[in-house]
């Protein structure tokens, strides 16, 4: 693996708070009860910082935490920062009434249980006791992303408690010396404040330990006499001479177990060491002894002298004195050496010189001296040097952030607003508005609106003309945005004022403390160091650690010097053109040629010739360039995506999960990558121009370089330039805020791809770049796992190693030529589709790694933008790389190993994309992609079947019925084909698209279709689904009339059995009628159907076997008897169903029972309802006896005749239902019409021997109803003897006697036609007879009653008459026979 590039000793400044949301300070005002001193002396602003003792330990709660502060006038602002977690309530602003904070008067100290802040003003001293962070958390594990700061409870403190504050006695009216103050805690816990006395010497004010009782004590230390400790509030008497020479300029303290050693650097250039316990001066040394050629310096007062201490177990106590001598400033590093008898001496270690003049601050570590100056332009100059191993006296550089450009070049194709990216927008906006309004919402989105509105309102207010050209308006825009930019510059200039330095002794982290923010000093990579360093720092090949070969190192130095010359020659306009060419994907080589052409044409100072001369000094330019390109290339063979071994212990894992995860660390790391990208992009640009210059000079410079340059080095440089331009773009592009509904939808899509990831975490960075988003959500975890897979968790967190490794690994994760694809995947997971699309656009023309993955990401972007066809095209292009790229291989991974082994990676890819397109809701694209995938699945029948099933499903959903049918027929899997066929039938039925369903040819699927429809028909409700009718139409279309008839007959049977309603009966009639029509269309010999088995369970294809009530499978059924129904059988069923319908129509309650009624039962139901016509028709069809019908009608006639008005009105209803013309006369009644109906039936349906008449008469007589004459006359003609017997049975003797008399007359020839006698009694007619038995019974009955004696005589006489005629007739016949015989 190519790990971090070589690190140089130089550093680069990175601002950690440039885009932080406006910090909110909690305000605390302290009133110590003093009045402001006369004169109104103001002290300079100052700053400082404190680093926790365990800030370098991973498992500590104070890991990577520190406190920094600013003082200005009467106010001190304290802020606690952490690189691991975001601290809540971490800012507090203390204001001391009528006091001024002394520069250097704030110190922070750490004890086991507390953090103690000591503050010294010009009149008072104060102590703040806060709980230690380790005591603020009950649990050993801190899992929150946000933690409470040590300042959380500061509002609860009583800062005016006398135990924690005191007025410095005797200082009223005196002027404190700036910087000559220090404070410390003794081992017992006393708080000591040492101040330089205005009259010379040192005043020490002591507060007792915060948890004990006691008063404030004051001690004065003077050089000339024995000091005496005085307790209380009274000042100490000063004895001895008073010399201004011992005026203390700088103080420092070293706390020992039993004493405090106070070091004072005085105005007389002497360093004095005091013992606080003994109150004596233990050591005095003249610092000018360490300054060469110090003549004349002694007469100068050392107003700017400063002193710093550093202690380590290896070097002991070291002191560093800065002698502020004009033009001869010097740092002297000394070591305190203790001898016997409590004597001390100083050992000189090193003298360090610097050409800088105005020292702002410096600090001492156990190995280095760090110094901060300001130059003539008030810009910061930071350097550091190792005071032990630095023979040449060479200071190491710190590349501080240059001030922003006073003018920003804006191309004609850009909006004037797009280049503004500055810190402090809120204050700048107030400056621009002249302080008129306060910004209430400091969020980035609102700030953009506020700034735009402010600039536009200023522009509008200055315009006097109502119309002007677009170009004029743009010029106005540029002018007013430049004015706002100027306000930003003014504010930034003030905020960037350097005030101090801080370096952690535990982690080596160095910070530059500016007035408005803190910036961090990151180690500089060697190639960046070479490009950024000035020529004085590039003196020998030893300064070039890129190559071990001295000749190559020398060539590299010369090449870099030449690159600097090229960089100075490139004008801002040409640099912008080069930038634009990269942005618009133009070839970098061509852009470099244009820049070179411009340089050659505008070369007025002979720069090109100077460059040529320098190039001639390079012996092997190809080797030097190869070494540089190798160092610039971040490509690595190893995969950084792995998590590495899991660290043991939950607390270790939790600490790693937070390491460098705060918003501050996110900003530092990402700006470090941005700085690297910007530096190296410019480096590559200049190198590409230089390579073109080599080609331009030709053999004059290097005769053998041309082929290597053109074929290898120039393409590599161009590729690196494009790569670093991409990194720069990524580090500067802002992330978009995403609505929650969009996140939810995207999460569903990622779930479909099995790539679900957590959405973006909240951040206080405002706005957030996509690089910061990537680092927070994905990269930080990968990087930390990578680091600690090779490093033990207990190892110290050294700043230079850790931060450089994090920056390098993050850049490698972003490097487009590396196989990892985590960055685009993160953008996709967090819905940053615009930025992802731009990323793919930038890498497309030149990057040959992850081509397919980029096309896949572009497809995702198109999907998010609603451009489905574009997305489909990109998905197809990505498919070719599925087996070669890590991301696509991960995408195609399947949880089902068997399925993964069976299908090819490309088919798995298609399945994932198809699932995604289905989830998005793009069925047309699913069809297109599935059709394409089928070509890939030539040998995989299962995959083909699944794809055809998908195509079928979506065609069907879209209403493409024909296409769905075609897809169904192409399916090679019979089971899936049957499922699709079943779905097709069901869906088309639900949509009522039966025409399509019936007309499909169903090649080789006819029986399956019929089976499916039959199964659906027999398994679903009859009235809500029309599958029987569909099946009927299906068979009719194919001219299969017998099956069509069978279907309708079965439908009718089920309707009668299951749907006991009038509607069901109506459908049943129609079904039977349709079945009849079908059979009539067939030749008679084939006009038959097999009767469906009533009440049986239909066996459906694929149905599971059913168990009986005992849980056992029933025995196999035997062979069933098949019933054949012919046409006349269907006709009978049809008439039966029609009769049922007629009954239900006239009497709806009967519908429930009519459906299952047999023909005899139905006849009874019909006659009960009065439907005699229907009953008679049904009886005749089924050859039933008509007697029950005549009985019923007779009974109705009886009821009408004997009933009142109500039966009469009801009778008209059932009378109208029978085929009898109603006589509309006033005399006609319902009774008359009923009798007429009965008479008509007797005439219309004659019976053998007048059976119907006999039933009617019997019914009437049994109810005592007189027989109508028409009935008697009618029955006489049919069967007079039977009538006689009926009359005798009911004792109607008179009527019977009259009947006998009439009957005898008829036989004798008088009225014979009324009795149906064709030929009366005569000699030539056939023999005639009389019912003698009945007549004898009548005579016997008449003879037994006196009332009927006359009738008896008449009958007997009539019989005698008949007998005489019979005798005569007989004689005549006998005579005739004899004559004939004779």
UniProtKB/TrEMBL annotation:
**InterPro entries listed in its UniProt record:** Beta-prop_Nup120_160, Nucleoporin_Nup160, NUP160_helical, TPR_NUP160_C, TPR_NUP160_M
Renumbered residue ranges of the record's region Disordered: 1097-1116
The Nucleoporin Nup120/160 beta-propeller domain covers 65-527
Q: Which residues form the NUP160 helical domain?
A: 549-774
Domain NUP160 middle TPR stretches: 815-1081
Gene Ontology CC terms: nuclear pore
- Any Pfam family hit: Beta-prop_Nup120_160
Q: Which domain of life is it from?
A: Eukaryota
Tell me where in this chain the NUP160 C-terminal TPR domain is found: 1126-1373
Q: One MF term from GO for this chain?
A: structural constituent of nuclear pore
Please verify whether the record's keywords include Transmembrane helix: no
Keyword Transcription (UniProt): no
The record's keywords, sorted A to Z, are: Nucleus, Transport
Task: State its location(s).
Answer: Nucleus
What name is this protein filed under?
Answer: Nucleoporin 160
Q: What is the lineage of its organism?
A: Eukaryota, Metazoa, Chordata, Craniata, Vertebrata
């Amino acid at each position: 693996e190519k790990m971090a590039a070589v690190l140089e000793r130089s550093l680069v400044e990175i601002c950690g708070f440039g885009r932080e949301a406006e910090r909110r300070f909690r305000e605390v005002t302290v009133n110590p009860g003093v009045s402001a001193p006369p004169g109104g002396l103001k002290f300079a602003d100052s700053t400082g910082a404190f680093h926790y003792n365990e800030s370098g330990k991973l498992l500590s709660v104070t890991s990577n935490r520190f406190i920094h502060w600013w003082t200005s006038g009467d106010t001190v602002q304290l802020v606690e920062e952490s690189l691991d977690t975001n601290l809540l309530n971490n800012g507090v602003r203390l204001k001391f009434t009528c006091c001024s904070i002394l520069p250097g008067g704030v110190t922070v100290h750490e004890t086991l249980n507390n953090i103690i802040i000591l503050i010294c003003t010009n009149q008072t001293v104060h102590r703040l006791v806060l709980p230690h962070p380790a005591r603020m958390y009950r649990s050993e594990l801190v899992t929150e992303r946000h933690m409470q700061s040590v300042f959380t409870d500061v509002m609860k403190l009583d800062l005016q408690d006398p135990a924690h504050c005191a007025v410095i006695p005797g200082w009223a009216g005196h002027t404190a010396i700036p910087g000559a103050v220090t404070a410390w805690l003794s081992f017992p816990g006393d708080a000591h404040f040492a101040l330089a006395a205005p009259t010379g010497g040192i005043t020490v004010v002591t507060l007792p330990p915060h948890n004990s009782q006691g008063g404030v004590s004051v001690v004065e230390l003077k050089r000339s006499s024995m000091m005496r400790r005085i307790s209380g509030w009274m000042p100490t008497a000063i004895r001895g001479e008073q010399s201004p020479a011992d005026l203390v300029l700088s103080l420092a303290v070293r706390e020992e177990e039993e004493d405090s050693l106070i070091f004072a650097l005085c105005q007389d250039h002497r360093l004095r060491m005091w013992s606080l316990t003994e109150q004596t001066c233990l050591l005095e040394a003249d610092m000018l002894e360490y300054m060469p050629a110090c003549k004349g310096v002694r007469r100068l007062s050392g107003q700017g002298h400063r002193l710093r201490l550093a202690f380590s177990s290896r070097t002991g106590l070291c002191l560093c004195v800065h002698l502020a001598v004009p033009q001869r400033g010097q740092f002297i590093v000394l070591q305190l050496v203790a001898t016997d008898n409590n004597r001390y001496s100083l050992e000189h270690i090193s003298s360090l010189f610097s050409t800088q003049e105005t020292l702002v601050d410096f600090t001492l570590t156990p190995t280095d001296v760090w110094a901060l100056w300001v130059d003539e332009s008030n810009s910061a100059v930071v350097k550091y040097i190792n005071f032990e191993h630095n023979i040449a006296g060479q200071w190491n550089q710190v590349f501080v952030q240059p001030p922003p450009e006073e003018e920003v070049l804006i191309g004609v194709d850009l909006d004037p607003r797009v280049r503004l990216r500055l810190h402090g927008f809120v204050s700048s906006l107030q400056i621009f508005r002249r302080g008129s309004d306060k910004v209430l919402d400091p969020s980035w989105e609102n700030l953009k609106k506020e700034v735009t509105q402010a600039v536009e309102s200023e522009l509008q207010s200055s315009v006097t003309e109502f119309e002007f050209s677009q170009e004029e308006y743009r010029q106005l825009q540029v002018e007013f945005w430049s004015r706002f930019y100027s306000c930003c510059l003014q504010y930034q200039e003030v905020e960037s004022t350097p005030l101090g330095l801080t370096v952690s002794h535990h982690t080596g982290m160095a910070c530059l403390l500016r007035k408005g923010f803190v910036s961090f000093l990151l180690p500089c990579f060697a190639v960046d160091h070479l490009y950024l360093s000035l020529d004085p720092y590039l003196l020998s090949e030893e300064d070039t650690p890129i190559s071990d070969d001295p000749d190559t190192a020398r060539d590299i130095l010369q090449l870099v010097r030449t690159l600097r010359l090229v960089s100075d020659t490139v004008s801002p306009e040409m640099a912008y053109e080069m930038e634009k060419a990269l942005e618009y994907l133009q070839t970098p080589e061509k852009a470099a040629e244009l820049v070179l052409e411009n340089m050659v044409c505008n070369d007025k100072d002979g720069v090109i010739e100077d460059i040529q001369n320098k190039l001639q000094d390079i012996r092997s330019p190809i080797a030097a360039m190869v070494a540089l390109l190798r160092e610039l290339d971040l490509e690595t063979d190893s995969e950084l995506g792995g998590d590495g071994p899991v660290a043991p212990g939950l607390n270790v894992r939790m600490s790693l999960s937070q390491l460098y995860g705060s918003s501050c660390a996110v900003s530092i790391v990402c700006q470090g990558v941005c700085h690297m990208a910007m530096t190296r992009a410019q480096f590559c640009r200049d190198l590409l121009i230089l390579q073109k210059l080599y080609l331009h000079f030709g053999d004059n410079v290097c005769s053998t370089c041309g082929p290597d340059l053109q074929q290898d080095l120039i393409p590599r440089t161009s590729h690196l330039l494009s790569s670093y331009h991409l990194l720069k773009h990524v580090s500067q592009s802002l992330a978009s805020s995403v609505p929650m509904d969009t996140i939810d939808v995207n999460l569903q899509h990622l779930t479909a791809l099995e790539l679900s990831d957590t959405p973006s975490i909240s951040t206080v960075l405002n706005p957030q770049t996509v690089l910061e988003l990537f680092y927070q959500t994905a990269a930080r975890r990968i990087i930390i796992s990578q680091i600690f897979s090779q490093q033990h968790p207990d190892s110290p967190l050294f700043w230079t190693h850790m931060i450089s490794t994090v920056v390098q690994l993050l850049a490698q994760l972003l490097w487009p030529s590396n196989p990892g694809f985590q960055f685009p995947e993160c953008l996709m997971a967090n819905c940053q589709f615009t930025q992802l699309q731009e990323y793919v656009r930038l890498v497309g023309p030149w990057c040959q790694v992850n081509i397919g993955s980029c096309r896949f990401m572009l497809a995702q972007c198109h999907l998010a933008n609603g451009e489905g066809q574009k997305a489909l095209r990109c998905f197809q292009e990505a498919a070719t790389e599925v087996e070669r790229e890590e991301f696509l291989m991960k995408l195609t991974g399947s949880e089902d190993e068997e399925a993964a082994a069976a299908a090819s990676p490309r088919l798995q890819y298609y399945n994932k994309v198809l699932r995604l397109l289905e989830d998005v809701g793009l069925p047309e694209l699913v069809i297109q992609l599935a059709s394409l995938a089928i070509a890939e699945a030539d040998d995989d029948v299962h995959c083909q079947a699944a794809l055809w099933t998908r195509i079928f499903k979506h065609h069907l959903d879209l209403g493409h019925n024909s296409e769905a049918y075609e897809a169904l027929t192409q399916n090679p899997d019979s089971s899936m084909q049957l499922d699709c066929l079943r779905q097709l039938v069901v869906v088309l039925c639900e949509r009522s698209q039966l025409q399509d369903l019936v007309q499909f040819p169903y090649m080789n699927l006819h029986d399956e279709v019929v089976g499916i429809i039959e199964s659906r028909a027999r398994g679903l409700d009859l009235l809500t689904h029309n599958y029987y009718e569909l099946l009927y139409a299906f068979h009719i279309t194919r001219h299969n009339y017998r099956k069509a008839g069978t279907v309708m007959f079965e439908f009718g049977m089920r309707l009668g059995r299951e749907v006991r309603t009038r509607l069901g009966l109506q459908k049943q009639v129609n079904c039977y009628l349709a079945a009849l029509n079908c059979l009539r269309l067939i030749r008679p010999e084939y006009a038959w159907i097999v009767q469906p088995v009533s009440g049986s369970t239909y066996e459906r294809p694929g149905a599971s076997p059913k168990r009986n009530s005992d849980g056992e499978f029933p025995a196999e059924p035997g062979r069933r008897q098949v019933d054949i129904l012919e046409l006349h059988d269907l006709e009978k069923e049809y008439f039966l169903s029609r009769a049922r319908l007629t009954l239900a129509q006239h009497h709806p309650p009967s519908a429930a029972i009519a459906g299952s009624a047999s023909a005899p039962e139905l006849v009874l139901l019909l006659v009960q309802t009065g439907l005699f016509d229907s009953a008679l028709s049904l009886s005749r069809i089924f050859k039933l006896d008509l007697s029950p019908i005549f009985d019923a009608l007779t009974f109705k006639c009886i009821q009408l005749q004997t009933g009142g008005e109500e039966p009469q009105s009801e009778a008209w209803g059932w009378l109208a239902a029978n085929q009898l013309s109603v006589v509309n006369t006033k005399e006609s009644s319902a009774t008359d019409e009923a009798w007429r109906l009965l008479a008509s039936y007797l005439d219309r349906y004659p019976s053998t021997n007048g059976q119907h008449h006999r039933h009617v008469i019997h019914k009437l007589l049994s109810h005592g109803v007189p027989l109508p004459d028409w009935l008697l006359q009618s029955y006489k003609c049919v069967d007079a003897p039977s009538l006689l017997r009926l009359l005798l049975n009911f004792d109607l003797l008179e009527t019977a006697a009259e009947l006998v008399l009439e009957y005898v007359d008829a036989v004798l020839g008088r009225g014979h036609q009324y009795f149906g006698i064709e030929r009366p009694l005569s000699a030539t007619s056939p023999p005639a007879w009389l019912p003698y038995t009945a007549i004898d019974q009548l005579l016997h009955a008449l003879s037994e009653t006196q009332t009927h004696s006359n009738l008896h005589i008449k009958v007997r006489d009539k019989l005698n008459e008949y007998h005489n005629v019979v005798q005569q007739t007989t004689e005549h016949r006998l005579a005739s026979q004899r004559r004939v015989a004779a």
